[in-house]
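Running low. Any example?
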Amino acid sequence: MSTSSGQPGHIRQFSSELSSLNRILDAALIWLSLKVLCHIYPIDSSQEDLYQYLSAISAALFLLVAEFRSVYRSARLESYFQIAGKIIGAWLIVAFLLIALAFLTKSSSVFSRVIIASWLIMAPILLITERLVIYLGLRVMRAQGANARTYIIYGNSENGRLLQQKINQTPWTGLAHTGTTESYEELLERINQKHIDYVFITNAEKNPGATRKVISGLSDSTASAYIVPQLFLYNAFDAGWVTLGNTPMITVNDHPFYGSYWLLKKLEDIILGSIIFLMALPLMLLIAIAVKLSSKGPVLFRQRRYGLNGEVIQVLKFRTMKSMDDGAVVIQASKDDPRITPLGRILRKTSLDELPQFWNVLQGTMSIVGPRPHAIAHNEEYRQLIEGYMLRHKVKPGITGWAQVNGLRGETETLDKMKSRIDYDLYYINHWSIWLDLKIIFMTVFNGFTAKTAY
């Protein structure tokens, strides 16, 4: 192979052995998981061949679908969750095809529903676990300098320096910097002289003509080219990507709950919210009785707060104070606040006063995880003092949140404390995933119920 300058180019092996190993392991796990289940739930010996055929067909289908979903493409620049998402997506397609095939052939009654249901759940768990082990192993190897790939930055600018800084902060990607250049001729010369795996093109927006020339020149080499957007956007606005048709765009100040993600969040709230509400119901009844007997006033305190898109909702709490402020001025609870009842002090310290908000979750006005809702009076005050404050209302408020499990509970007596809370809230919105929600719930259960600043 030759490049445009007439010198020989380079072809490098891109993890073909690893891709082959992944294919073999995937097929083996699909077959083995069904085999094991057939032993756990004994079947008639005459049916063994049917399950063997099913596992063989399923493995072949998975390998085919996985190819189309780029599951076996080099994942050096992808996160584990992106890889796991591809695997789960491929398996769901396979499961759909198998169910459709069973329906068309009227063969569903031949197989054990318990075995098939268990297998449809067990197989993808094994596949993503296998890939996690390989992923973590590669990260360790690459951090130590093994299995490295080289890159060069085209565009000697601040954007290029930011990119190099970000890559240096992720040594587990195994990317080795070979230089930075603004010269098209020097770029091709370096590619001819060295094994260059990746070319990162910065400042493409400023000079599209030069960018087209570079891409055309790189087409005569084996280097992979990536056009890098202006990274200052990510640093300044915590931006992300969205695709309109086939046009990629940078999104700023958006929410993450579109399509299937909205459904995932909704299912999380309904399923976990129902389970927790039912488990906590006896405790809530005892607290309600204690509140009623310990001081005068209603059991529940209803306060107007801003919810999704800034709409007013009524948030439920067990009453913990003698007064129930919900007007133009709301004073935050402070240490030794005389308004707090003796029982209320315990409830607030342990966050048990928040338990009725699971009813808000089941109503759909709140989520289990999200930015904590503030009193309307506080919203109107801080939206004028903190840039981006109202962006926290692009998602439903939560019973617990990223700010709370990072120590930002209770009184925010200074503007800096409130700003820190908002920073955490916006980070959560811009980086949401189902895994982050589960992490926050886990942290809340084990260390988030109490805090020194919760009065």
User: Anything to note?
Assistant: The CA atoms of residues 115 and 380 lie 57 Å apart.
